[in-house]
């Protein structure tokens, strides 16, 4: 169920921040209601549920499909020409599959692991620059920025987001490129993320109370 005050909730988010609804909690009927309320960026975590909902909602216009979960290499082909944006590029092997199978450049975030002990997903932050350098040669990957998941740790959430923001600025300067977006912040921490420059927040539970 979508929270009843969804319209009001949307007005609390700055208009330059994109709400990507993490739709793993709901079915396509609820997603129709979300779209009607003005949230048209959907983020799915799993290939099978993405394919099902993509089919069920094929009549909806102006939807943007984001893939926000870990994308297994052996399943990537099934979705790679259906999604509008990938938030979770984390290996060169996956990049190669995208390069080979995607027909137009795909807006792509590199998922970064800022907290190496607590979060095994993503490229370790100290390897990101080298990773990005290699990606620049991939014509079907349009690198738009970095994505992260904050974790419960001794380091404040704010500091974790800040670290990614600083990393983005360093890499932009050192490689002389522009990375317009940061995908960070979920239901519990999106306000901190916005303060640190998030352009995309991925919200699940808070939309579906
Ligand atoms: C589920 C999920 C979210 C949203 O989490 P909430 O805490 O429910 O807001 C964001 N990003 C990813 C990758 C997710 O899997």
Sheet-strand content, in percent, reads: 15-25%
- The global form is globular
Helix count from the secondary structure assignment: 8
Say what the CATH topology is: TIM Barrel
End-to-end Cα distance = 7 Å
What's the structural domain tally? 1
Oligomer: single chain
Task: Specify the helix fraction band.
Answer: 25-40%
Order of helices and strands: HEHEHEHEHEEHEHEHE
Summarize model confidence as the mean pLDDT: 96
Bound compounds: pyridoxal-5'-phosphate
Which structural class fits the helix and strand makeup? alpha/beta
Looking at the overall shape, the CATH architecture is: Alpha-Beta Barrel
Compute the number of strand runs. 9
Low-confidence stretches: none
Largest sheet: 9 strands, parallel
Q: Would you state the CATH class?
A: Alpha Beta
What's the name of the CATH homologous superfamily? Alanine racemase
Rg is: 17 Å
What report would you give on this structure?
- This protein is an alpha/beta fold and 209 residues long.
- The chain has a single domain, classed as TIM Barrel (Alpha-Beta Barrel).
- The chain is built from 8 helices and 9 strands.
- Strands 1, 2, 3, 4, 5, 6, 7, 8 and 9 form a 9-stranded parallel sheet that branches.
- The chain binds pyridoxal-5'-phosphate (PLP).
- The site of pyridoxal-5'-phosphate (PLP) has 13 residues, from strand 9.
């Amino acid at each position: 169920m979508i929270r009843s005050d969804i319209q009001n909730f949307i007005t609390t988010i700055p208009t330059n921040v994109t709400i990507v609804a993490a739709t793993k909690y709901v079915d396509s009927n609820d997603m129709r209601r979300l779209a009607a309320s003005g949230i048209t960026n959907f983020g799915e975590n799993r290939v099978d549920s993405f394919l099902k909902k993509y089919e069920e909602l094929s009549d909806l216009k102006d939807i943007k499909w984001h893939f926000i979960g870990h994308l297994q290499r052996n399943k990537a082909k099934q979705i790679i020409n259906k999604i509008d944006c990938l938030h979770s590029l984390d290996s060169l092997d996956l990049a190669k599959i995208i390069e080979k199978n995607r027909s137009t450049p795909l807006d792509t975030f590199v998922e970064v692991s800022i907290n190496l002990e607590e979060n095994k997903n993503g490229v370790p932050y100290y390897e990101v620059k080298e990773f990005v350098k290699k990606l620049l040669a991939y014509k079907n990957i349009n690198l738009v920025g970095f994505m992260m998941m904050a974790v419960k740790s001794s380091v404040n959430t704010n500091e974790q987001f800040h670290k990614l923001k600083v990393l983005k600025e360093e890499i932009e300067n050192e490689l002389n490129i522009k990375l317009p977006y940061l995908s960070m912040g979920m239901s519990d921490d999106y306000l901190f993320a916005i303060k640190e420059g998030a352009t995309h927040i991925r919200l699940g539970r808070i939309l579906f109370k």
